[in-house]
Each structure stands twice: as structure tokens, then as C-alpha cells.
């Protein structure tokens, strides 16, 4: 097994939050519950293998004593959200995801021996080559995610989480949502909420159809697999007769998913933060040189996953969006052969930028409420019920 001592590295490099910094940050948090706990909701952006940076971000949050309630994510962010919903500790997350053989798990099963490609980390830059290879092989994706789904189901079941209903039953008041894209019907789906009768089909077994009719019975591992299905790179998933691909095609950063409107008469103010974790990568901000239909296709595919969410990010969201700048790591979404050094670099960047976010002068609970249209002077908490964050 790969050697992985991230906490030791944090201490050696002097990155870890000090006790004085911790006290400063906690003073800007909402008041704890009667048991002294501070909660938050978390939304995680898709980003492929760069999701390892979330481990560093979550270690920083754990050092502050934060506990998580509602969780959501797209693609790689859905993996993180699912593990957190299953009550994995940060120590367990670091060991499980930090030492994982990503290449074997994600690239271990090609859909056809006729598919020939070079370095998978560069595949998304040349989509026309993928299209040509897939046309020859008569497949809709280069790699199968079956190995990943089996592995994830085994991991989550160790935490007694198999279905979305299990999250609610034994997750300590948690909730989980996963974003996918239905390219057959041309719509975004939030699972399990949007599962319904239209996704039944003769190809589904009776038990599978019952799960679709009762969304809480739907498999978390299958939902995450669907959200990870990068078009052309992975074969699409299926819901009934619909082809399902990466949720990032329509919303790679669903920060909106747990938002509530400002309260009217009798409505409660949010009880805690909703933090969004997203990546900043300067290498993705370059202009595309459009010279013909092939370069146009490449630019279109690269734009799909980021443009919509960038448009909807408001300046007011700055005090709840933790931006992790991974530019210096120079890691692509599909670089599944990541070295231990690159993994550690992503981890440290996740911790560093999360710490800087919490220590910024703009960060505070009252400022967060004001930016979302709530009045901090009229707080009304109900500790017996879970309010939306």
C-alpha cells in the first residue's frame, strides 16, 4: 500500500491551523448547538482526480471541529459527499482515498479491445480522437465504471450506507444529493429527488423499478457512478431508456442545491453555513484558438462543464465558496496515474486555501446571512429541528 502521512507533512511544513487561529475562526462561526457542536452543509464541485484536494480542505474543517449535515456534489465531488454522508471520519477518508489505486479502479476496464488511445490524462483535449476510436469500436465510452461502482458500494456498506434512505436513517441527520445529466431527455437531475416512474423500463428488474418508484431505495453507489460518467471517456449510465452522463455537463458546482429564500412570516433563518468547495485552475482560463470544426468541438466540451456555474456565482457568494487554486499542481481531470507527490501537493493546497478562506477578514456568520438576504438581528433557531443551511 502506498505510504501516506498527510498529517505529519502538515506539521512539518507549519501549515496546520494553530490554536489561536482556531479560536479566531470559531468566533466568526454561528453559535454551537446545546451539545457544543457547530454544523455546516457542504457542496463539492466536480474535478476528476483533483478531488484529492478536498481531503486537505476537510482536514482543515475537522481541525475546526465542524460537523456535516446536508451534502451534495457532482462527479468527483459526489464521491466526497457520499463518503461524508456515510459518516467516514477524516482519518478514514485520508487513508481510503489518499492511498487508492485510481488508475486500476477507473481505467482497469476498457469497453472494447478495439479502443486505442494514448495518455488518458490528455484524452479530453482531443475529443475527436475519442469519437473516432469509439466509432470503430462501436462503443459510447472508452472505459467502464463497473469496477468503481462495485468498490464504492463495498466501501459505503462498511458504513452501513447502501441507499439514499440509509443516509437519512443512520447518517446522524444527514442528507445527500447527487447531480447527473440526462442527455436523452435533455435535463439535469438531482438524485434521488428526480427519480420517478418515467425511468422505469422493461430492462429493469422488479426490484430496480421499485427503487425508481421509491427514490430513497436507490443505490448511492449507482448515483455516484452516473454522476462520474464523463462523456466519451466513460460509457454513459442508464436510467430506464435514458442515457445518463456526468452531472458537470449541466451543473458542475451546484451551490444552489440547499439554498432557501429569505424567510417570510414564521420561517426560520438558516441555522448554519452552506460551504461550497470548488477548484480554481488558471490553465483552464486560456482562450481557445478556434481554427475549424475539430477545435470548435474541443472548446465546446471544455466550456460546457464550467460556464453555467461561473455565470451564476455571485459576488455575494464569496464568503461561502472555498476556492482551491490547483493551478500549480498542473493536474488534468483524468490524470488517474497521479504520483504520490502530486497527491500530497493537491492535499496541501486544499488545506492551505481552506485555512486562508476561514482567516480572511470577510468571513463571518452575520456577513453570510446578509449576503443571502437574511437579517442577523432576527435570528430564530430551533435546535430540535434541522433547518436548511
Describe it.
With 389 residues, the chain is an alpha/beta fold. It has 14 helices and 10 strands. The chain has helices spanning 6-12, 19-26, 53-63, 76-85, 90-98, 102-107, 127-137, 146-158, 164-170, 206-213, 220-227, 293-312, 340-359, 365-371, and strands at 38-44, 66-74, 141-143, 175-182, 187-191, 232-234, 237-239, 242-246, 273-280, 321-325. The strands form 2 sheets. Strands 1, 2, 4, 5, 7, 8, 9 and 10 form an 8-stranded mixed beta sheet that branches. Helix 3 runs antiparallel to helix 5 (90-98) and helix 3 (53-63) crosses helix 13 (340-359). The longest helix is centred in the last third of the chain and has 20 residues, at 293-312. The radius of gyration is 21 Å and the shape is globular. 41% of the residues are buried. The model is unreliable at 380-389 (pLDDT under 50).
Q: What's the gist of this structure?
A:
With 389 residues, the chain is α/β, with parallel strands linked by helices.
- Helix percentage range: 25-40%
What oligomeric assembly is this protein in? single chain
Number of helices: 14
Shape: globular
List keywords for this structure.
single chain; 389 residues; alpha/beta; eight-stranded mixed β-sheet; two-stranded parallel sheet; 14 helices; 37% helix; disordered C terminus
Topology:
Layout: H1 6-12, H2 19-26, E1 38-44, H3 53-63, E2 66-74, H4 76-85, H5 90-98, H6 102-107, H7 127-137, E3 141-143, H8 146-158, H9 164-170, E4 175-182, E5 187-191, H10 206-213, H11 220-227, E6 232-234, E7 237-239, E8 242-246, E9 273-280, H12 293-312, E10 321-325, H13 340-359, H14 365-371
Parallel strand pairs: 1-2, 1-9, 2-4, 3-6, 9-10
Antiparallel strand pairs: 4-5, 4-8, 7-8
Helix pairs in contact: 3-5, 3-13, 4-11, 8-11
Amino acid at each position: 500500500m502506498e505510504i501516506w502521512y498527510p498529517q505529519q507533512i502538515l506539521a512539518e511544513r507549519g501549515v496546520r491551523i494553530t490554536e489561536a487561529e482556531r479560536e479566531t475562526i470559531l468566533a466568526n462561526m454561528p453559535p454551537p448547538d446545546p451539545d457544543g457542536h457547530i454544523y455546516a452543509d457542504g457542496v463539492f464541485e466536480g474535478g476528476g482526480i483533483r478531488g484529492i484536494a478536498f481531503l486537505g480542505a476537510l482536514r482543515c474543517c475537522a481541525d475546526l471541529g465542524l460537523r456535516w449535515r446536508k451534502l451534495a456534489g457532482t462527479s468527483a465531488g459526489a464521491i466526497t459527499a457520499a463518503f461524508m454522508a456515510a459518516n467516514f471520519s477524516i482519518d478514514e477518508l485520508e487513508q481510503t482515498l489518499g492511498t487508492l489505486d485510481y488508475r486500476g479502479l477507473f481505467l482497469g476496464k476498457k469497453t472494447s479491445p478495439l479502443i486505442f488511445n494514448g495518455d488518458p490524462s490528455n484524452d479530453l483535449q482531443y475529443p475527436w480522437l475519442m469519437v473516432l476510436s469509439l466509432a470503430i469500436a462501436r462503443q459510447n465510452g472508452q472505459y467502464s465504471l463497473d469496477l468503481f461502482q462495485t468498490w464504492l458500494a463495498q466501501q459505503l456498506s462498511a458504513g452501513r450506507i447502501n441507499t439514499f434512505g440509509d443516509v437519512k436513517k443512520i447518517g446522524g441527520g444527514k442528507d445527500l444529493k447527487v447531480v447527473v445529466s440526462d442527455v436523452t431527455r435533455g435535463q439535469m437531475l438531482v438524485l434521488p429527488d428526480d427519480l420517478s416512474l418515467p425511468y422505469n423500463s422493461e430492462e429493469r428488474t422488479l426490484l430496480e423499478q421499485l427503487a425508481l418508484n421509491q427514490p430513497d431505495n436507490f443505490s448511492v453507489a449507482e448515483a455516484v457512478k452516473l454522476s462520474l460518467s464523463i462523456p466519451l471517456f466513460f460509457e454513459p449510465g442508464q436510467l430506464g431508456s435514458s442515457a445518463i452522463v456526468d452531472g458537470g455537463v449541466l451543473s458542475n458546482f451546484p451551490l444552489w442545491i440547499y439554498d432557501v429564500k429569505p424567510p417570510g412570516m414564521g420561517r426560520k433563518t438558516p441555522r448554519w453555513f452552506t460551504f461550497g468547495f470548488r477548484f480554481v485552475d488558471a490553465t483552464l482560463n486560456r482562450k481557445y484558438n478556434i481554427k475549424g470544426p475539430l477545435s470548435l468541438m474541443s472548446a465546446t466540451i471544455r466550456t460546457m462543464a464550467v460556464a453555467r456555474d461561473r455565470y451564476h456565482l455571485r459576488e455575494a457568494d464569496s464568503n461561502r465558496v472555498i476556492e482551491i487554486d490547483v493551478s500549480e499542481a498542473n493536474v488534468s481531470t483524468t490524470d488517474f496515474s497521479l504520483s504520490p507527490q502530486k497527491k500530497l501537493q493537491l492535499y496541501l493546497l486544499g488545506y492551505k486555501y481552506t485555512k486562508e478562506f476561514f482567516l480572511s477578514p470577510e468571513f463571518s456568520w452575520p456577513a453570510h446571512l446578509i449576503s443571502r438576504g437574511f437579517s442577523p438581528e432576527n435570528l430564530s433557531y430551533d435546535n430540535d429541528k434541522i433547518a436548511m443551511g
